[in-house]
Design a protein that fits this description.
The complex is a heterodimer of chains A (about 280) and B (about 350). Chain A is an alpha/beta fold. Chain A has ten helices and nine strands. The N terminus of chain A is likely disordered. Classes of the chains: A alpha/beta (about 280), B mainly alpha (about 350). Chain A: Pfam families: ABC_tran.
């Protein structure tokens, strides 16, 4: 039975959520032009959790903007096999005039859902991030961690009927049929204190498993990347290129259980590589 | 493993599972193991039962920590103090007005100026009250207030789309921005002679002056409201799938509401002032008797009590509209956003 359980995730990871081929992004023109990304090849499988790691200036956020379709690449191809990806930023950026539930409803409203449907989906999503009874609170009445959870629920809602939860109304979605959803996260926990961040990382993993969404998670924290990601991708800085990838499934699981020699090794290895990348800029 | 009860592919029950996982009353270890096994772990076989058991315990620990954080971090609401609050808000202005009248009474009693320059407070009150009793005040107020309100509403209808255009279209801002700011600084009474020459002594002339007073304020209020929106909000809107129009309706306008309201308030004040100026200068039997005309009559008949009563009425309308319409609106808007600092 363990075997049958292990198979579906493998099968779905055959198809990809998003593929980047030779993506380049240059800002400005002429001698003042800055190349943020140069020849980035990256593939995120359906339902896969990938962490993008890099020092400042490596174009992590630029890459996310390109995938989110908020910006266009200068060269290369981005092929998404998902609907519009959900995006989560470092700030919760909730609309201060809307209640938590209305914030979650906003993308559904923009998608043209009826009021009653919106309420049901928003309620389910708030339950998912464990804010069930707090839908009528305003953002200023919530703590930073709670706001970030509302933002997560809103992001999932914006993935529309692909979020896995939204399909609950339709119910016809078979295991093989639905297009994979994609969640893009730009250092979403960077502004939180350590304990809140720890809790939210666990929450995110739980939500990810519950919704089977592909996640592209940008961070500069090696430990966070190893704990969350199935795969960690290291980007170089100015211009951003993929330096190396690590399979961190085992290390991440070890980190959660606390039996962490292997995890410590992986973190050490990635950190030293990151240091190399950074110090190469001092020489140049 | 609890997995087999769950119909495969039913997403709603997947959520159900995800939600129930951290609850402590279930067998936490087992659900924790199912959770990790379901989470795309091809290497699941290599992991021992004890390891996953600790993972489950860890998870419930974390959810307890999370609940504690929620309880500690959520900002507390302070409860209002009812009667005391109303008293501290209402008493100071009342005392100020009483003092003002007292000083007036003392100055009048000292007889420093002749009676026709500084009448007794009681004389002014009698003049005012006699007009209230015979109903003349109602007609005067109606003439002025309905003009001001209509003019103001027309100003809102023109100023709002204009403000959106100026704020969001660069060429329009470059072209109209300075003109609007100039118009806002130009006392609209300066338009009265031109309006009378263009339109004649009629309502059109008066509305023209009122519009030129209110539209620039409303427009500029909306523009500064939009300029002050944190740039992350429209970006989020775009990420959530808002097009240009939807973004204006669901993000820009509500986000700009505090600035817009300030503009509306100023727009109302300018409408009211412009109207008084227009009525004071452009008097004609065809225009009826508004507050400005009433004030003008007081001057013509050398009737100081009437002049002061008219000024009092003009003030009363201004303060009344502010207190009855704009203050509650502003309070509701600011309170909903947690911006209660200025409200006291």
């Amino acid at each position: 039975m363990t075997a049958t359980l292990a198979v579906p995730p493998l099968a779905t990871s055959q198809d990809s959520a998003v593929e980047l081929v030779g993506v380049r992004k240059t800002f400005g023109r002429g001698p003042a032009a800055v190349t943020a990304l140069d020849g980035v090849d990256l593939r995120v499988g359906a339902g896969e959790f990938v962490c993008l790691l890099g020092a400042s200036g490596c174009g992590k956020s630029t890459l996310l903007n390109l995938v989110a379709d908020l910006d266009q690449p200068s060269a290369g191809r981005i092929v998404r096999h998902t609907a519009r990806p959900a995006v989560m930023f470092q700030e919760a950026a909730l609309m201060p005039w809307l209640t938590a539930a209305r914030n979650v409803e906003l993308p559904l409203r923009l998608a043209g859902l009826r009021r009653s449907e919106r309420r049901v989906v928003a309620g389910e999503l708030l339950e998912l991030v464990r804010l069930g009874g707090l839908g009528d609170k305003r953002p200023h009445e919530l703590s930073g961690g709670m706001r970030q959870r509302v933002a997560l629920a809103r992001a999932l809602a914006s993935a529309g009927d692909l979020s896995g939860v939204g399909a609950g109304a339709g119910a016809g979605a078979g295991a093989a049929a639905p297009a994979p959803a994609l969640l893009l996260m730009d250092e979403p926990f960077a502004a939180l204190d350590a304990i809140t961040r720890d809790v939210l990382q666990a929450e995110l993993l739980r939500v990810w498993r519950a919704t089977n969404t592909a996640v592209l998670f940008v961070t500069h924290d090696v430990r966070e990347a190893v704990r969350l990601g199935q795969r960690v991708v290291l980007l170089s800085s100015r211009p951003g290129r993929v330096v190396r990838e690590w399979d961190t499934r085992q290390a991440g699981a070890d980190l959660v259980t606390g039996s962490g020699e292997h995890a410590a090794e992986v973190i050490e290895e990635i950190t030293s590589r990151l240091r190399e990348v950074i110090s190469s800029h001092a020489a140049a | 493993m609890p997995q087999p009860d769950v119909p495969p592919g039913s997403t709603a029950s997947e959520v159900e599972l995800g939600r129930s996982t951290p609850e402590p009353q279930g067998s936490t270890g087992a659900t924790g193991a199912a959770d990790t096994a379901g989470g795309a772990e091809p290497a699941g076989g290599t992991r021992t039962a004890t390891a996953t058991g600790t993972a489950g315990a860890d998870l419930s620990d974390l959810s307890a920590v999370g609940a504690g954080l929620d309880a500690l971090d959520a900002p507390q609401r302070d409860s209002g103090r009812g009667v005391r609050r109303v008293l501290t808000a209402a008493l100071p202005p009342v005392v100020a007005v009483v003092l003002l009248v007292a000083v007036w009474q003392v100055l009048w009693a000292a007889a420093l100026w002749p009676e026709y320059k500084l009448p007794a407070p009681l004389d002014v009150w009698t003049s005012f009250w006699s007009r209230v009793r015979d109903g003349e005040v109602v007609g005067i107020l109606w003439t002025s207030v309905h003009r001001a309100v209509l003019g103001f509403l027309a100003g809102v209808l023109i100023g709002t789309p204009l403000g959106l255009l100026v704020a969001k279209v660069r060429v329009v801002r470059a072209a109209l921005g300075p003109i609007l700011t100039g118009l806002q600084n130009l006392p609209s009474v300066a338009w009265v002679p031109a309006a009378v020459l263009w339109f004649g002594l009629n309502d059109a002339a008066i509305y023209f002056v009122v519009l030129l007073g209110s539209v620039p304020s409303i427009t500029n209020g909306l523009v500064s409201g939009i300029d002050q929106i944190p740039p992350i909000l429209p970006r989020v809107g775009r990420a959530l799938g808002a097009g240009r129009l939807a973004s204006a309706r669901h993000i820009l306008l509500p986000a700009a509401l505090p600035g817009y309201l300030a503009g509306l308030k100023q727009g109302w004040a300018f409408s009211w002032r412009s109207l008084m100026a227009a009525e004071l200068i452009a008097t004609s039997p065809r225009l009826g008797v508004g507050l400005g005309t009433f004030l003008n009559q007081g001057q013509s008949f050398n009737d100081m009590p009437t002049v002061i009563a008219a000024i009092f009425l003009i003030l009363l309308v201004g303060v009344g509209i502010e207190l009855l319409a704009f203050r509650p609106l502003e309070r509701a808007v600011l309170r909903a956003r947690g911006l209660t600092g200025a409200l006291g």
